[in-house]
Design a protein that fits this description.
single chain, about 425 residues, alpha+beta, about 20% helix, about 20% strand, globular, disordered N terminus
Length: about 425
């Protein structure tokens, strides 16, 4: 495959709507990867593999990849053993795909009379730093009808709270919630989409995809030596992110300690996903001065107003009281979360306006001390609210990593079956 063809394919997938689920197999030779004790790896070449086993799930503090396919699933079976079997099968498939190997026997070579184990649209693609991260939503523990389908109510962490309705929210139920989530990140969009597609195929009859979101152009970074990427408004945001190399900050703000909640969550985290629609056309007609006042940053360098560089300590007195950075910066808000957001564009809304914005992803030790107080603060007075609206929302408990070949996602939650 030529470089020109590859670039064209990736560009196309990056601008395709969330409803597209066609992908390709992440087959090919994997480059050996070693997961260090603090879950840090350099942002290596696009063909390399991220180790699957470790104390924490990859895809959290891992250097942020360029593409995203995020999927939420409803569990349709009410059989606990079937759900356990699915999680085991998903884990094995993820273990193989993240290392650039096909699912099962692969797309070819099996019985000609049976469907292949792997969809195989792009045999030969490399791992592209694929990570797969799984989370469990509140409804898995107890449904909206109050039913405890899987005997998990007593295992629901206190920190896994239903998010409140924030001022200005206009949430679409069809783009919110879900029993399970899978976050697939990779440097090749086809690899990420292929991974979600195969997990959905494996889960047929046991789970159904509730909603999904493609993302491109990472808007945050866990590697502070790199410049912070820009969002679709042209600004750098979230520059004071938790670094993948800062284990002390991770332990304080990201990972759940063993004495905080049920034992099965030790080493895990809590994920908040929000689909944030940007009113692009209104923003594009706003003066540069007002744009900079809204963010509290210069558009060119990304520096806090009154400073020279993007990571300079902000002078909050140099910006307006409702500036976004003034309200959200940890030095002023007192809240630190790990961001892994992506831009999205899903065509138009039928009125000629772009359906585009930010798919916000944040990990934290406890949403009650993280996202909830931060978003409540922003929702009330942030100047940016004139140009954005939260239209999708979900929260999940993300269990710790899969430690070895005998382990699987959620094993401790289900009683070490």
């Amino acid at each position: 495959m030529s470089e020109e063809t590859t670039t064209s394919r990736r560009t196309l997938l990056g601008w395709t709507g969330a409803g597209v689920v066609l992908g390709a197999a992440a087959a090919g030779s994997a480059v050996a990867a070693v997961r260090t004790g603090n879950d840090v790896q350099p942002a290596a070449s696009a063909g390399s593999a991220i180790a699957f086993h470790g104390p924490h799930q990859a895809g959290i503090t891992t250097p942020v990849q360029d593409r995203l396919h995020f999927a939420s699933f409803d569990v349709t079976t009410e059989d606990r053993e079937e759900l356990i079997a699915l999680l085991k099968e998903w884990t094995e498939a993820a273990r193989r795909m993240t290392q650039g190997r096909p699912v099962g026997e692969g797309a070819v070579g099996g019985l000609a009379e049976a469907p292949p184990d792997d969809t195989g649209e792009a045999l030969g693609l490399q791992p592209s730093r694929l990570t797969l991260t799984v989370g469990f939503g509140p409804s898995l523990f107890r449904g909206a009808d109050g039913k405890d389908r899987f005997g998990l109510t007593g295992q629901r962490p206190e920190a896994l709270v239903d998010l409140p309705k924030f001022p200005g929210d206009n949430l679409d139920a069809s783009r919110s919630g879900g029993d399970l989530c899978v976050q697939a990140c990779a440097d090749d969009p086809q690899v990420a989409v292929h991974a979600i597609r195969n997990l959905a195929r494996i889960g047929f009859g046991k789970v159904a995809m509730r909603w999904s979101q493609l993302g491109f152009g990472k808007t945050s970074s866990t590697t502070p030596d790199e410049q912070t990427p820009r969002n679709l408004m042209g600004f750098k945001d979230g520059t004071h992110n938790v670094a993948g190399s800062d284990r002390a900050a991770q332990d304080k703000h990201v990972w759940v300690p063993s004495n905080d909640g049920p034992a099965w969550m030790a080493g895990g985290s809590y994920l908040v996903a929000r689909r944030i629609r940007m009113h692009i056309e209104t923003w594009d007609r706003t003066s540069l001065r007002e744009q900079e006042d809204v963010f509290g940053r210069t558009k060119g360098e990304g520096a806090p107003l009154g400073r020279k560089h993007e990571r300079d300590t902000p002078d909050f007195k140099a910006m307006k009281p409702d500036a976004h950075i003034r309200l959200s910066h940890p030095d002023n808000s007192g809240v630190t979360i790990l961001r892994r957001g992506y831009s999205f564009t899903d065509g138009t809304d039928g009125l000629g306006r772009l359906d585009a914005g930010l798919f916000f992803i944040a990990y934290q030790r406890d949403v009650r001390d993280g996202f909830i107080p931060l978003q409540m603060r922003l929702a009330k007075t942030d100047a940016l609210n004139e140009y954005i609206q939260h239209v999708g929302s979900a929260v999940y408990a993300v269990p710790p990593g899969v430690r070895d070949s005998g382990d699987w996602w959620g094993r401790a939650l289900f009683g070490n079956n």
